Amino acid sequence: MLSYAIDYKIWGLNPLGYHITNILFYILTCIMVFFTLRLLSAELRKGASLGSHGRVAIFGALLFAAHPVHVEAVTWLAARKEVLQGFFFFLGFYLYLKANKETGRKAFYFYLSLVVLSILLATLSKPSAVIFPGVIAVYEISKRKKEVITFFKCHWIFLISLLILSAIFTFILMKVMFEAGGIKHYKGDSFASNLLVCVYVFLQNIRLLLLTINYSPAYSFLVNMPIFSPTNLILFFITFSFLPLASYLFGGLRSFFSAFFSSL
């Protein structure tokens, strides 16, 4: 709401100014994607050349910038939360990568404090930024493998702070959504049916990312019943196969694929 208030102070009710602000934040987000991917590539691909890191970052940032799935977030004024969250989320992850490169204790904790601030702003923009601790966990496991437990023990205060922050905002979000009627029972009225809907939504999002056609302001689909029908079992298998695939791509770190999946 603060960004809208500033826009109103400057532009009044002229929509042009609001669109300019959305575009500026999207440009800043794309810039942060570039710097984050370049630093991420350098951290995970130690043996690669400096130019290779730049190419990975450019490919990922251009793919992110040009992907039509982001049109709604930029052109729809009510979706300001999307571009704000994207900017602060990538900024937080970039600062986290910078903190890991610092050898001085003061500089390290200074960067970590900026990370917490960035993620706080990202979560205030859109609560889905509460997944940031999970992103950190996946990154550290991919990078350190056997040493990850030692890392978590050394930086448990920072990690616990992020988890507490995420838990607080998750609780607030769930409470508000329940009171507003935003959380409803799905078809089947059971945990299994709800999980199945999540699978359908996940695969729908993957389709929208890979097949850039038939976009719409709202999407609907039919859920096959019963839960454990052959079709649903196949969908479950496809969905959970993404986990080892992602592990392989980030473990083997093929330049093209890591840039592609990071930008998505």
Beta-strand portion reads under 5%
Q: Output mean pLDDT.
A: 79
Describe the global form.
globular
Helix and strand content put the structural class at: mainly alpha
Q: Strand tally, please?
A: 0
Low-confidence stretches: 253-264
Q: What profile does the largest beta sheet have?
A: none
Head-to-tail CA distance between termini: 27 Å
Radius of gyration: 20 Å
Count of helical stretches? 13
- H/E order of the elements? HHHHHHHHHHHHH
Helix-residue proportion: over 70%
Structure description:
By secondary structure, this protein is mainly alpha-helical. 76% of the residues lie in helices and 0% in strands. It is built from 13 helices and no strands. It has helices spanning 2-11, 15-44, 50-66, 71-75, 80-101, 105-125, 132-144, 148-154, 156-180, 191-210, 230-240, 242-252, 255-263. Helix 2 (15-44) runs antiparallel to helix 3 (50-66). The protein is globular, with a radius of gyration of 20 Å. 21% of the residues are buried. Residues 253-264 have low confidence and may be disordered.
